[in-house]
Each structure stands twice: as C-alpha cells, then as structure tokens.
Amino acid sequence: MIEAILVFLAAVCLIATLVPLLPFAHGMVRSFDFGRLQVIAIAALVIAATGLTGSFSATAMAAVGMAALAISIQLVHVLRFTPFWRVQTAAFKGDEDATPTISVLACNVKQGNRDYGRVMDMVRDCNPDVAVFMETDAAWGEGLGPCLSDYPHSVRQTQENSFGMILASRHPLRDSEVRFLLNKEVPSISCVVTLPGGHDLRIIALHPEPPLPTRDTLGRDAEILVVAGEARDEKLPLIVTGDLNDVAWSRTTRRFLRISGLLDPRQGRGLFNSFDARYWVLRWPLDHIFHSRDFELVAIERQPFVGSDHFPMYYRLALTGGSRNNAPNAPTRDDIEEAKEAVTTEKNRDRPPAGTDWEE
Q1: In the chain, N or C: fewer CB atoms in 10 Å?
Q2: pLDDT confidence of 96, banded at 50, 70, 90?
C-alpha cells in the first residue's frame, strides 16, 4: 500500500514536470511553471520515504526513478537561481559616492488590502529612489498620499480592476507615459528618470494579466514580449520591473531575456520568492526587475509582509557600464517568430483581461 502511494506521488511529480514542456500558451499548461520548488520537495520526500521502507522491489524502484527524473528536470530550470550558478549581474564593488546609483521598489499592494500604514512604513524604511505600486485603485491612491508626498514626481493610473499602477520618483521624470500596450484595460508605465549628475535611464513598469486554467496566456505573454522588443531597441540604460504574473524560470521569461538582452540579478544568487506572502508552502519568484548591461548590483532584498499576497522587492543598482556582467543567450529565430505571432494575435483580439473580478 505504501509503495503504491509513493508510485502515485512520483508519477504526479513527473507529470507536473513534463506538462510545462508542452509548447502551448494556455493557463492549464503554463500554470505548471509555477510550482517547480514544490514538485522538487515532494519528489525528494518520495525518494526519502522509499529509502526508509528498505524495499528494492520494482514498484519502489519505479517510484525512485520517476521522482529522480522529475527532480533532475526541475533543477534545470531552478538551479540558475541558486549560488551554484554563475551570476548574470556582477556585484558592484566600487565607491557608491562616486557612482550614480538608483534604488527601485516593486510593490503589489493587492487591491483588496487596506493596510496603507504598513505599506507606507515599509516604503519609509527602505527609502527607494523610485517606487512602483501595482493593483492601486482610487482608495490606494488616496491612502498612499502621506507617503507619496515625499516623492515630487509621479505617474498615476489608478483603476478599479486590479490593474491600477503608480510610479513615484524622488528624481525628475520626463517622457512619462501610461500605455495600454495590447489591452485597453491593462496599463503599463514608461518614463525617463534623470539621476543626480544628469544621468538618464528609462524605467518600464508593467503588470500583465495573470494566467487562468480556463483560458490562454497570450495576453500576459504577448505584453511581456512587446516590452522585450522595446528593450532590445532602447538606447538608454533600462530597468524593467513589476509583477509579471510569471515566474523567473518560465518559457516566456527566458524568451524575454534572450530577446531583450536584459539581465536578471537573481541568477546565481537566490530565488527571492515574492508570492504567495500568506502561505510559505506556496511561494515562487513573481515580482521582477530586469536591467540592461549598464548596471551592476548593489543590493537585492525582499521586504516584509505588508498585508498583500506579494512581498515587495527592493533593488539597488549602480550605473557602471556593466563590463563585468555576463550576457544572456542570444534569441533564436523561433524566439523572434513566436514572439511576433503572439503579439500579432493579441493585437487582433478585443476582450476583457483576466483577473478583474478577483477583488469582488
């Protein structure tokens, strides 16, 4: 009986490992991208439990074999976000007083969360140069007022559908724009930040649709890939940040990095799981910052719980030219063609975005 249960669990782990390898942009498939850490944990328990039984039967060995294969495949995706992998973004070792730096906070407040004070205390503690707040409705725009008064420059797009966004900056902004890249209800923000000393850089903040098991993920994937194309052509140093509703190791995010040429400072350092802040057993890296090779990493920190289902993420980057960074792989022809196909398909659709009713 015990061996049968272990075989069943191992088979589930292997199926959950193989499903996201399918090239289908559907929530039923792409949702399996998220729980890779959980699958590794369950498969490891299967191997440990099988060992404790002391059995070498065919059934026991089948359980161990399937669990080991699942772990091996999952580690191909996850291992790059551990210290066992080489870093993409070099650690800054220069003089911060002599080098332009920028600190960025990405905070999905969760629209239904009303703990404004906790969020404001967190912002004041980490004191970022630029703060991006997502899922901000009119109430959040008002609730964050005392905190935002410390930021003389801002771009605000509050909405009642869980896709509102506010970008606040201590430094001057220009070319600020709220954009609806592919869906008229899903905004993103693009702006140029001028650092002390006159150094300009661009920030793009986005919060695409979440994946749902009942519909495709083209809305999310295409928006991410639109920004990848923009990043590839951007002349200024660039930071892309936000809750991408996609994990760092997914097919879409890896394609984004190849097309954009941007770097992920978590690679070679750690997972920095930001969701779900409420349940430790269900966590994965969902809130991101990617940057051009102009930057090196000063600090990366997950912030404390603020009442949301996301932990805020704080990053500090130094504008060095980034000659010590390791570049991502170049995009393949399939990357370019499939990205164009996804964007074209989504541009020709007119539909409400996923997840607008989650706070009702």
Answers
A1: N
A2: confident
How many whole angstroms separate alpha carbon 221 and alpha carbon 252? 6
What architecture (CATH level 2) is domain 96-343?
4-Layer Sandwich (3.60)
> Does the pLDDT of residue 1 top 90, yes or no?
no
Q: Break the chain down into helix, strand, coil percent, rounded to 5.
A: 35, 20, 40
Q: Is 294 helix (H, G, I), strand (E, B) or coil?
A: coil
Two structure tokens written together for 72: 């091996």
Using an 8 Å Cβ cutoff, are 162 and 109 in contact?
A: no
pLDDT at 358: 67
Domain ranges of the chain: 2-81, 96-343
DSSP reduced 3-state for 353: coil
Rounded Cα distance, 326 and 322, in Å: 9
Element at 18 (helix H, strand E):
helix 2-18
Residue 158 near residue 137, CB atoms below 8 Å: yes
Q: Which of 321, 283, 334, 288 is nearest to 305 (CA)?
A: 283
Q: What is the pTM of this model?
A: 0.94
- Angstrom CA distances, 162 to 151, 282, 359, stand at 23, 21, 7
Answer whether the bond into residue 276 is a cis peptide, omega within 30°: yes
